[in-house]
Design brief:
This protein has 88 residues and is mainly α. It folds into two domains: 1-44, no CATH class; 45-83. Helices cover 78% and strands 0% of the residues. It has three helices and no strands. The chain has helices at residues 4-20, 26-41, 47-82. The longest helix has 36 residues, at 47-82. The radius of gyration is 29 Å and the shape is rod-shaped.
């Protein structure tokens, strides 16, 4: 499967070649501007940005799990201290 960036680059290359062979040189600038605006409206992120955010989320989830375990251990200790001792 072609990567999205490679696909866009190939598409742009094909459009550029088509326009270079035509008398309408203004069309290339208009197509590039239109595509740039369309991609900006899509609010896309780069793969690097996505990978950084995914890594941060993974680390946050691990930290949350560790904190949940610590909280559970503390709750167990508090419950044990608060419960009345059974006489022997």
């Amino acid at each position: 499967m072609i990567k999205p960036n490679a696909w866009f680059e190939e598409f742009q290359k094909n459009v550029s070649e088509l326009i270079a062979k035509s008398p309408a040189a203004d069309i290339e600038r208009n197509v590039k501007a239109f595509m740039g605006q369309a991609f900006n409206k899509m609010d896309l992120v780069t793969r690097e940005e996505f990978d950084v955010q995914a890594d941060m989320l993974s680390r946050a989830q691990l930290r949350i799990e560790a904190l949940e375990q610590q909280l559970h251990a503390l709750e167990t200790r508090v419950a044990a201290l608060e419960s009345p001792e059974k006489p022997n």
